[in-house]
Design goal:
Distance between the termini: 40 Å
Radius of gyration: 14 Å
Strand content: over 45%
Largest sheet: 7 strands, mixed
Order of helices and strands: EEEEEEEEEEE
Number of strands: 11
Shape: elongated
Length: about 120
């Protein structure tokens, strides 16, 4: 079983910055992809950014140039640096670990964190 624990959410001001962290714990061999999703009230969960174990990244158009995803494979931790925050960034942010192999060449699984609230308001 893999657990994802997120931290760093809270209240940010428009134009300000926040940094989210997510650490995977438990017993596993590898995590191919780690990412951040968000869900605003009344809306569907959407991809914010993801990063592969090799460092390839992908961003939603709405956050390109403002958010930066990074990863420390040794710590099984993914970060999301959010700059130039906008009120529309307000949402619950969820960490995702995808294509998680518990054993080498074994089945792969996907896991979600519990979510952390980000509110952007003056």
């Amino acid at each position: 079983q893999v657990q994802l624990v997120e931290s760093g959410g809270g209240l940010g001001q428009p134009g300000g910055s926040l940094r989210l962290s997510c650490t995977a714990s438990g017993t596993f061999f590898s995590i191919s992809i780690m990412g951040w999703y968000r869900q605003a009230p009344g809306k569907r969960r959407e991809l914010v950014a993801l990063i592969t174990s090799g460092g390839t990244t992908n961003y939603a158009d709405s956050v390109k140039g403002r958010f930066t995803i990074s990863r420390d494979n040794a710590k099984s931790t993914v970060y999301l640096q959010m700059n130039s925050l906008k009120p529309e960034d307000t949402a619950v942010y969820y960490c995702n670990a995808d294509r998680v192999a518990i054993i080498p060449k074994g089945n792969e699984y996907s896991y979600w964190g519990q979510g952390t609230q980000v509110t952007v308001s003056s």
